[in-house]
Amino acid sequence: MSLVELTDSILLFVYAFWCEDQTTPGRVGVDMWRSLDGMKKVVRTLWEGVIKASGGGKEEESAKALLGLCYLIDALVLMHTTVYEQSVLHTRTQRISSSPRPPPPPPTSSSRLNGSQSSNGSTNLTAPANGLPPADSPSSLASASSSPSSSSDPSHSNSGLPVDYIPTILSLTSNLPRSLRLLSTSQQLLSFPILRKNFPSTWTIAMNSDIAGCGGDGGERMVDPEWIEGGWGWPLGPSGAMGLGVGGSGVGAGGMLPHMVVFGRALLQEWVKGRKEVREEYDLSKGWRRV
After folding, report:
1. Residues 6+ apart with CB under 8 A from 260
2. Which residues contact 242 (CB under 8 A, 6 or more apart)?
3. 265 burial type by CB count under 10 A (0-12 exposed, 13-18 middle, 19+ buried)
4. Per-position DSSP letters for the chain, written without gaps between them
5. pLDDT in tens for each of the 291 residues of the chain?
6. CB neighbour list of residue 263: distance below 8 Å, 6 or more residues apart
7. Where are the domains of the chain?
8. How far is CA 36 from CA 16, 18, 150, 159, 250, in A?
9. Are strands 280-283 and 287-290 parallel, antiparallel or unpaired?
10. Is the whole-model pTM more than 0.85?
């Protein structure tokens, strides 16, 4: 049952990291969130092993639901950090666009020499018979590549942009589609029929919860990871609709994280209760205890 503890640990880390982000409004500890990547990958692989070892039927469906929870954690955490990094990039872009463009680098000494020779008529340049421009000699290519630019700046590229600017854009443009794919996979594994059939207690709590999900009423601050009976506002609210919340301080994936933590712990606790071979109960506050 160590897998249950590992999965629960990730959920508690998510809640702790979310609380840490609240201490500095407007900022997200991206490196802090990325520290979970290795642990999330291990836990997801272990749940895949549980599915393969299951005998099918309800046992397999329940394990797939927990695997869906792993994908849900991945999706929301990636959305949370990506949205923040996009806002940082937007601010950087505005600053770069409003700053004066750096002047072009001055010509190299070799190009000045060639231009002087041409103007003095000391060099006779003729076009080749085939009409193509003359190819550069190996020596000229070597000298061009080895000559440093007088305006070179290790923090900026030749275009005048910071060296990490383009890589950051490429990373963010791939992260958002990836998070949506992870969310779609989680919804396939953690579907309403599976929840209703295999996790009836969790389903009932979710459907009867009065906590609004991801709205402007601070619903994300009303949930309690140690009191799942108090309910949550996402991913299953009073309307039974699954989706992305909008509005208020809890907008986006960041506001969904506390709801997901309580929802995930409810799934874990009920999954343990449904295992006949387990003679212990998983207490969300104290851990394992005999029943």
Report:
1. 11, 14, 72, 73, 76, 232, 234, 235
2. 187, 192, 235, 236
3. buried
4. -HHHHHHHHHHHHHHHHHHHHHTSTT---HHHHHTTHHHHHHHHHHHHHHHHHS-SHHHHHHHHHHHHHHHHHHHHHHHHHHHHHHHHHHHHHHHHHHSPPPPPPPPPHHHHHHHHHHHHT-S-----TTSPPPPPPHHHHHHHHHSPPTT--TTB-TTSSBTTHHHHHHHHHHHHHHHHHHHHHHHHHT-HHHHHHH-HHHHHHHHH--PPSSSTT-GGGT--TT-GGG--SSSS-TT---S---SSTT-HHHHHHHHHHHHHHHHHHHHHHT-TT--EEEETTTEEEE-
5. 789 999 999 999 999 999 999 888 888 899 999 999 999 999 999 999 999 988 778 889 999 999 999 999 999 899 888 888 877 776 667 676 666 666 666 666 655 555 555 555 554 545 455 554 454 444 443 444 444 444 455 555 555 566 666 666 766 666 788 888 998 899 889 888 888 999 999 988 888 877 765 544 566 777 888 888 888 876 543 333 444 433 333 345 677 888 899 999 999 989 988 775 555 666 666 665 554
6. 202, 206, 232, 234, 235, 236
7. 2-98+161-290
8. 12, 13, 44, 36, 22
9. antiparallel
10. no
